[in-house]
Specification:
Ubiquitin-like (UB roll), 17 strands, seven-stranded mixed beta sheet, 12 helices, homodimer, alpha+beta, L-amino peptidase D-ALA esterase/amidase, 26% strand
Chain lengths: 405, 405
């Protein structure tokens, strides 16, 4: 398995990104991916009970197992727009289906941006012909830019693996920098591959890989109405169809996971106002559920996140969050490490000089390790600090967007 | 029932507050309350599994039903200090018991401040004689100042009611401004009354009043290791002992609740970096548990809190948090109001002009009302915004306290 130096596109896919006027200043806001051959797809969606219209529609289209195109707009979430929202999502898929001469239910539709504001559907319909004309085998980078909202950089990654002697490419793009929580975020991710793989295996592998990547990151603990991870495999690499539990399939699973983890890390690093990238590991929990309770409580604690921002090795706030996480905890067994340095051992302060701890948490990226010393379960998340910039960035979204008196 | 203009002290109580050197710059950091007659007590403690030594000790002392004094230090939480912490808490109660010529188990002990840093027990023991000598019937205000940590003002309140023809006074003091979460906060509250009331009734009434006050506030969602609410009644008003379900007892219950709610509101208003005081009401939930899930998710959402800070009527972030709260929700039934103005009706934007919504959320204090329109259960919390000042205030606690390299 090797990370590609250049951004390779799997065979049989094309992509594009254009400015349709949903965003101001001629910014890219509409993206399209198509496959020239039939695909199998798998997707994971937000578990939020308030779901955007395109999420509802794409779930329905996905069930017909014949997706050929993905259209995504940024700048507007098309969420909480009632029946009109659903009709607009339908129009969005129809507009692109007409251009491609396929059926609307072969189009997977996504939106991201502000909630509760009508989708500028006319912009999208008018732009559909140009969007299709712009499709290129080298269009992945433009696509990845067209799906950005508050992202400061586009996030792409690509790897190549061997399956049955054939070179297979797995390429992904993701967006999202606020509302990032375990169990998905205001986050969209699209992964395309030319591997031949059957739909059932792809679904299992995707669920597993999403759990270890996009469901294991946290910036601010908010989970959005639009979160979607979508994987599309078109078999254009002509590898022999891998059997269940074969080495080829295992290889593919590791490759897909690597792409997703790389994208997930990029999401955290580019989180709104993020200055620290923290790997938070919890070990020694009595159950996997308990380990997840601890990573959730610690990674979402405002006080812990403020300390990270200040490069302050404040382990007291960490053990406090461990205590209210709901997990089984015995105070006198809890160890906390910043990097390799113990901050607390057996629930009390360790002998590590404070300067050494300070140097560790002053790094741009470091690991916090919590050992509950009660059992064998563990969990790991990627998280970040909470900065004044996060607050100033998020104070005024609605007022800036909605004009009037 | 009337709110006292001056801060009345119930009969038979004295209080004091002094500087013992735990805090720098001669700031008050040690407080004492004593009752001259026997008392009945009730208390509520943090549900955090990591509990400070004084919490463990006070729970034990409370079970012997003969508390005569309360000693509180600020500047150090005496949490996560292992066996030494417990010994220090014991020494703290012993030092004051010796001076008052009572037993150590008649002393209720509390600490608040930094976690995981040894309690300066020598300061406390040396200061005990002065602390006792300073006791005054007018000492409540100094006591309330001695328990402050990051509070910008001391929080006190006092009311007088009639019970069986006698004037009864209920007076409270509270501290806390960060780590404020439902189910208690880095929060200490002490309420003293000269009412005669039996211990069993006092316990029931206290639990109920705490639920509607201190357990219904949220600043940052962090719950501390030291939270304690303590109520002491000494019967010095000589009212006849009220019977269960009597008007007198009902009257007392309302009085105690009023004192606690007033203190709880003061805690939120003085929260770290708080610029907005928001009453968040959820109605129409299918169960009380569901209503609480929604108040928790909305009041703890960083994105919602940033919007409040910016006076931004961003109802999309509110409905998003409603959706991931875990409560039963039907998108097309959700109504959201800022003050009396509808922002969303039936899950979509309402026709209220944006300027009207902006004016409402620009107020220093206002109400957000969410109606799920599914059932009859409701819940109300007092909450706040998230500001850049909160972050800057909380970045560096540990590094500032712990010197060295």
């Amino acid at each position: 398995m090797r990370r590609a130096k250049t951004l390779n596109m799997p065979k049989g896919f094309r992509a594009s990104g254009i400015a349709s006027g949903i965003k101001d200043n001629n910014k890219l806001d509409l993206g399209l991916i198509i496959s020239e051959c039939p695909t199998v797809c798998a997707a994971a969606f937000t578990t939020n009970k308030i779901q955007a219209a395109p999420v509802k529609l794409s779930k329905k289209h996905l069930r017909r197992s014949n997706i050929k195109a993905v259209i995504v707009n940024s700048g507007n979430a098309n969420a909480c727009n009632g029946e009109k929202g659903y009709e607009d999502a339908l129009l969005m898929s129809k507009s692109i289906a007409d251009e491609l001469n396929i059926k609307p239910w072969q189009v997977f539709t996504c939106s991201t941006g502000i909630i509760g504001y009508p989708l500028p559907i006319n912009n999208i319909c008018s732009a559909a012909p140009t969007l299709v004309k712009s499709l290129k085998t080298t269009g992945w980078s433009r696509f990845s830019k067209a799906i950005m909202t508050s992202d400061s950089v586009n996030k792409v990654t690509s790897i190549q693996i061997k399956m049955g002697g054939k070179k297979v490419t797995i390429t992904g793009a993701a967006k999202g920098s606020g509302m990032i929580a375990p169990n998905m975020a205001t986050m969209l991710a699209f992964i395309v591959t030319d591997a031949a793989v059957n739909e059932k295996d792809l679904k299992v592998i995707t669920k597993d890989a999403v759990d270890d990547s996009f469901n294991s990151i946290s910036v601010d603990g908010d989970m959005s109405t639009n979160d979607t991870v979508m994987v599309m495999a078109n078999g254009a690499a002509h590898n022999p169809m891998p059997k269940s539990k074969s080495d080829d399939l295992l290889n593919f699973r590791e490759g897909l996971k690597e792409v997703m983890i790389d994208l997930a890390k990029k999401l955290v690093k580019d989180g709104e106002g993020v200055t620290k990238f923290v790997t938070l590991e919890v070990n020694g929990a009595v159950s996997s559920k308990d380990a997840r309770k601890v990573t959730k409580a610690v990674s979402e604690s405002s006080l812990v996140k403020c300390s990270l921002n200040g490069s302050d090795p404040n382990w007291g706030r960490i053990i406090d969050a461990v205590g209210y996480s709901g997990a089984k905890v015995e105070e006198e067994r809890v160890d906390i490490f910043f990097g390799e340095s113990a901050a607390a051992l057996g629930g009390v302060v360790a002998s590590t000089p404070i300067g050494k701890l300070k140097r560790e948490v002053s790094k741009k990226a470091f690991t916090i390790r919590i050992n509950l010393n009660l059992g064998k379960a563990s969990h790991r998340v990627f998280t970040s600090d909470l900065s004044e910039e996060y607050v100033s960035y998020n104070r005024l979204e609605y007022a800036l967007k909605i004009q009037g008196n």
